[in-house]
Design goal:
Structural class: alpha+beta
Radius of gyration: 22 Å
Low-confidence stretches: none
Mean pLDDT: 92
Order of helices and strands: EHEEEEEEEEEEHEHHEEHHEEEEHEH
Number of helices: 8
Distance between the termini: 21 Å
CATH architecture of the largest domain: Alpha-Beta Complex
Helix content: 25-40%
Number of strands: 19
Largest sheet: 7 strands, antiparallel
Number of domains: 2
Shape: globular
CATH superfamily of the largest domain: Naphthalene 1,2-dioxygenase Alpha Subunit, Chain A, domain 1
CATH class of the largest domain: Alpha Beta
Strand content: 25-35%
Length: 357
């Protein structure tokens, strides 16, 4: 798809389709496995319009449930992270075990007979892979490894489960969620927007590869003669291919997750719709556990550069969304250096088509 309607970035009805047909049916990354370490550690969030909880049960097994009581639908856990010994309804005190079983109903004898075994929390699919937690709010569709396994196998040498945070930040950005991913995966804007930063260190067009709805961009940055020594001195993990050691690999897992991987660091972008022209944006920058010396310095220098480049991108995104909102273009046309956008919007069209239901 080389042309898409500009209304995709401002239309509330189209956003409702995306929430229902994409977000509530896709495998979505919801956090790092290290954030849920022990029994009772939980994360609560909304996926589309579905309130979800993800937690460790009494045995440390990862579980996910719809975050509402089976009595009258009250939300059980507040959004965010925490720890509980059991899951209790704040309204009528129905109590659930960490594995989702209904354990206690106050005044149970005054109900018509209850089959507590059938009134446990509604389970959802949840898995751990590459140090991250993935959840799917739909019981249907392929499993995670069927859709993303090739990417997980590719990034295995980076040992991403060893990565620890340097900086994590949530923000609200006044633009459509797709615009953030669009901008992060095209090189057509580099000369104008990043003329004094990225563009000075990039001399070739990114290599582009697809994995079903997902895709990867591979790009040599600052490909100078001294890089071989520098990469060897700061690149733990592996074993890496020469391209993995020296080049930036940018993976987008449809619909809303992006990661930049290099042997010495990981960057994560994730965007969640918060209205047709607003999104919640997560930025995470990580280093390998135990980074010291030159590796530690390289990570911090890259992080500072990443933050500066991100500010350049966010500034132009605000101007983009203002133009879309004002209707200054009916359709968006994609350049060859925006071919990743064409692939993404093809997938978007398939998922939002009524025949996909």
């Amino acid at each position: 798809m080389r042309t898409v309607p500009a209304s995709r970035y401002v239309d509330a009805d189209f956003l409702a389709l995306e929430q229902r047909r994409i977000f509530e049916r896709s495998w979505l990354m919801v956090g790092r496995a290290a954030e849920l370490k022990g029994p009772g550690d939980y994360l609560a969030l909304k996926i589309g319009d579905v309130p979800v909880m993800v937690l460790r049960d009494q045995n440390g097994t990862l579980r996910a449930f719809r975050n509402h009581c089976r009595h009258r639908g009250t939300q059980l856990l507040d959004e965010g992270r925490g720890n509980v010994k059991a899951i209790r309804c704040p309204y009528h005190d129905w109590k659930y075990a960490l594995d989702g079983r209904l354990r206690h109903v106050p005044g149970e004898e005054l109900f018509e007979p209850l089959d507590k075994a059938s009134l446990g929390l509604h389970p959802l699919r949840a898995l751990e892979a590459i140090g991250l937690i993935w959840v799917n709010a739909s019981p249907q569709g392929p499993d995670l490894w069927a859709t993303s396994g090739a990417i997980f196998e590719e990034v295995a040498p980076y040992q991403l489960e060893e990565m620890t945070p340097v900086h994590e930040h949530w923000s609200t950005v006044p633009c459509n969620w797709k615009a953030v991913l669009d901008n992060a995966t095209e090189s057509y804007h580099l000369t104008r927007v990043h003329g004094m930063t990225v563009d000075k260190h990039v001399t070739t067009r990114p290599e582009f590869r697809t994995y079903g709805d997902h895709y990867r961009l591979t790009l040599p940055i600052a490909d100078y003669p001294w890089r071989t020594w520098f990469d060897a001195a700061t690149g733990r993990g592996g074993p890496y291919t020469p391209k993995q050691m020296a080049e930036l690999h940018k993976y987008v897992l449809f619909p809303n997750f992006l990661m930049n991987v290099l042997p010495y660091h990981l960057t994560i972008f994730q965007v969640w719709p918060d209205g047709p022209d607003r999104c919640r944006f997560f930025y995470g920058f990580y280093e390998r556990k135990g980074a010291r010396g030159l590796e530690w310095l390289r990570v911090r220098a890259t992080w500072l550069a990443s933050r500066y480049i991100l500010r350049e991108d966010l500034a132009i995104l605000l101007r983009f969304q203002d133009g879309v909102r004002a209707g200054r273009a009916d359709h968006h046309r994609f350049h060859e250096d925006e071919r990743a956008l064409a692939h993404f919007h093809d997938a978007l069209a398939r998922w939002t088509d009524a025949e996909h239901e």
